Amino acid sequence: MRRRFLALSLLLLPFSACHDAIPDNSTPNALLPTVALADRAAFVEKNSHMAFLLDPADKALVPRMVSVGKAPIAAVKRNATNQLLVLSSGTRGSAKDALVPAQLQTIDADATVPSAVYPLASSFDGLAQSADGGFAVLYHAAAAQDSTNTALFNPNELALVNLASPPSGNALPNPYPKSIRSFGGVPADVKFSPSFTFAGKPRTLAVVLAQNYVTILDLGNLDRTEITVPLSPDSTSSFMPRQVLFDTANSNDPTTPNVNLYIRADGSNDIFQVTLAIDLGTPAPTPPSNDFHASLSMLAAGTTPSDLALYGTGVDTRLAVVATGSRTLAIIDPRTSSTTSIPISIPATQLVVFKATSPSTPSVTIPEDRALLVDTSSGSNSVLFADLKSIETTGGIALHDYPLGASATSVVPLVDQGIAVIMFGKYTGVSALTVVDLTSRTLSPIGSGGGQAGATMIDTQSPSRVWSLDGSNGISYLNLVARDGQARLATGEVWLDQSIADVLPLGQASSDKHRYLVVDQNDPNSVGNVTFLDADNPDRTTARTAYGFLLTNYLERGNP
Amino acid sequence: MNKIYLGLGAVVTVALVGCSGAANVAGSSSPSESSGGGPSKGAAGSNGSGDFIPAADAGMPFAPVVLPPEQEQNFDFLAPRAGARYVYVANPTRDTVSIIDSTNLAITEVTTGDTPTYLATVVGQDVALVINVGAHTLSVLRGIAMDPVPVAVVPKANTISIAPDGLHAVVWFDASQTGATTTQTSTTTLTGSTQDVSVITLSSAGDQATSMTVGYQPSAVVFSSDGAAAFVVTDDGISSLRFAAITKPGIAPITHLTGSAVALVRSDAGAPEAGTADGGGSSVDGGTPLDLGKDTIATTVPPGTGTPIDVSVTPDGHYAIARRDGTAELLLVDLTAPPNSAVTSILLSSPVTDLDMNPAGTQAFAVLRDESKLVAIDLPDGFADIAHQTVWPLAGETIGSVTISASGKFAVLYTTALPITSLVILNLQAGVADASRVVAVDVRKAIRAVAIAPDEQTALVLHTKTAGSPTATGIDQATVLDRSFGYSVVRLADGVAKLQLTSADPNPFAITTHSEFAFVLLRDDTAGVRIAESIDLSSFQIADFALGSPPNSIAAMSSDTQVFVGQVHPEGRISFIDWTNGQVSSVTGFALNGRIQQ
């Protein structure tokens, strides 16, 4: 493993190579969580309000530094791009320091692409973005409020940012300030639809979740009003929306274009179906009215629904819902609200819907809709496979029980690779996790040796791999599917020279054609300590460490 | 009478409600006739050239057995009501009416008044009237807006009858509806008078109500087809409400139906005619008008008793016809004549078990079940000259009810009093020599009701079932058939029929505006049956639509190609089915939907 002592090589010659010699009068660096961009790692240091981008293909591992807004509070990868999003809260200003407004900033991995800065009217602390990275919604997250801040603020104020457009300048401001109507609640989360066309027009919807209601925003038409949909019939109920599914399959229906949202809320036994429909028979309303209309249906789904999934298309579209309280699997025809509910042997909390053939019906060679049902909270020692197509006609016959070696705590679906990984919340023993082959319905338990294990993470990039930390210097891995020269479920390990805090796989290969694993090494001195490991062929001899990169140009940057 | 009137346009629906052929009868729940006991006068038919061969019991003599009455059912008053585009649902517990837009399922909730309970819509229009029981007011909704000021109505009112033109309504108390599926408190029905009605003049510029006193115990309200007058059928007689003349509260002129009257009877009345060419032979008379004027005599008959039922009014509001329950007496009421000279009655040859009128109001049709005859009586001449009566003897068939098609082309005759599986289709416009003039159809199950599609091409026949489960072991196929629910669709031109057995009682039902489809609702809460079944009336193909909740109402929207299906759900649920493509959309939670802000 080669280590790059960047601080030494670049700036800190007077202080020798010993990182203990860092000036003790400096403010310790404070990093936001490491961000894995598509092909590089990004680090945001809060005190210097500086972003450091490290390209693992750069042999020297010299960070590219970009200033970000003052008081950065969140840094994430902009979805579907190779950009960093940094949310800063700014400073209020004083006699000594000028006021610096809050801002949202994009920083592209490509240094030639200019950074975009979106000034914000408020110091938001919640950041949500659409799956395509086209839009961001900034909000005041109730859970993240600064208790020391006594300034008044409107918790229902949002900033809607079109990240695909430059800041401001157009007919509508960008970011677009929006205070949504409230039924007494405050935003708790924001969900986004996929981008789709609605009656031929491109759309992205944002759904703001609040206790007892949701707010729907048409992000492509910000001059139109928001739609507020109540979920609770009276003030005595407390429904907290948690999960939103979008069905846009009929968004261009020639007669009645419509989109369905399915919302699961804690505290409610109903799934809320919100239908957005465009009436082609009447002139389209002009702003601020929306050109679609919302209606609500409550779908009975058993007691305490815990997960839902859509499958099928057109008139065969169905909503599958598992309910832990009633131990049922409900198959709902959303068109008619007709429900087929069957008892299941476990209080399943999670549904993994997939298309596959089934060993129970070998004569059926066409893949059909099926589901894996997993209990991740009540200690069940089995999982269920459900043949969804047959549920409505054969009931419980379509369910098949498979034993587990331990009680599941989570499940990671990798449907496109034909597997799911069931985790057990512990990383030692013969049942650290189980790999489920969704087609053959084989469950492969994976064990781990003794010792206090660290985190386990699933690298979802195909072919997938599980990375497991041993709590010190070791990383072991498991091939979830076969890859060149390596069998499915083959294992390996790499030992580095320092203890490991976390690992993050990059999403794509860097310019040197290698895809890397970002290994956050423990960094007691907060100077920056990261190792890049070849994610496909992990080998300590090719691993390279950038140590001290946060001190790059430290002196030239003044006194951060 | 046990028929469903389908002729007046868009809304072709619902539960099995008896209606008149010529004018709307709202709230009619006339007790059906009892049979036997009455004089069997000779409403005879002539010899004819019919070629009908009875399916069974050819030559069956007149059988003076006592049969049960024909059966009817009533509206569910809390069920949704269809306008043209909107569906209206009263929510008594929330003091609101939910208005559902069938085009996009948007729901508007309007607060109308205290305990809105009884709701009716103007046929083919998005105008709804709702009685706020707790406030004794009537609110009028137009589209999704409400007229600003509700009008006061009589305290006991539980029924809204709306004129065909939608310009007037009569709000009244129908004693037969008490105890129906409403949330009305009993205190509203215990006191006050049953003889008060409110005449409502509907106008978007301001609705007006005028209280009028009518006869005792109203049982039906009938409108003239031009909407200029309403006639309230009461125990005392028929109260006339001529809207143009009503400017302040008053007592409505009443034509009493009791008291002696001059009856016109045939001299040979009373003789059964089994075995004769015009009666019980193996052929059916073709309906040539009788030339029996020379036999006509005038006599005075004892004063009739019993409540007049099956009241119909001619479209011009000139005449009303009725029968007396359990008798052979028919009444003709000249609604324009002075009260004491207004009533003419005739006695037919046996008790009349059903009475109907053609839409033009030119003929009345009386069914003589004891003789298996249908008598057509020209109005008004048939009450003065027996030559203006036409008789169709249908020997071998047991018929007690008649359903007349929308334009009066067909009469479908059947009985609901006995488990008879056949019906007779009469083409009233066919020539004497037309072989298809009379068609007997064995529909294989006993009949409960018949509805004819507006285009007069098909009829929907609802069947009865016998007690017991069709899935019991050890029963033969015939018993399985008898014990099953079901319905038939029948092509009127030639009697081609299709029997469909169902998993639950097929009721209520709806037929679409232009007769493309019929829909029946199947509901069995114990068995979990919740289905809307569509019937393609051109191919008789049937498709099921599973529903999320037990269905309780259905109607066709007049403005598009959808039917709505109201369902039992604590938050309110309705589904719309587009019969052109089978698309279904549902909305649940009327109150929540009403609170959506968009």
Overview of this protein structure:
The complex is a heterodimer of chains A (560) and B (598). Chain A is an all-beta fold. Chain A has 4 domains: 29-179, YVTN repeat-like/Quinoprotein amine dehydrogenase (Methylamine Dehydrogenase, Chain H, 7 Propeller), CATH 2.130.10.10; 186-300, no CATH class; 303-450, 7 Propeller (Methylamine Dehydrogenase, Chain H), CATH 2.130.10; 454-560, Lipocalin (Beta Barrel). In chain A, the strands form 11 sheets. Chain A has a 5-stranded mixed β-sheet. Chain A has a 4-stranded antiparallel β-sheet with strand order 2-3-4-5, with no helix packed on it. In chain A, strands 6-7-8-9 form a 4-stranded antiparallel β-sheet, with no helix packed on it. The two termini of chain A are 32 Å apart. Mean pLDDT of chain B is 78; it is low at 1-65, 72-77, 180-188 and 267-296. Chain B is 3% helix and 40% strand. In chain B, strands 22-21-26-25-24-23 form a 6-stranded mixed β-sheet, with no helix packed on it. Chain B is mainly β. Chain B has a domain at 81-213: Methylamine Dehydrogenase, Chain H (7 Propeller). Classes of the chains: A mainly beta (560), B mainly beta (598). The A-B interface holds A 181, 225, 227-231, 233, 255-256, 258, 273, 275, 277-279, 281-282, 289-290, 293-300, 315, 332-339 and B 101, 103-107, 530, 545-549, 571, 573, 575, 581-589, 591-593, 595-598.
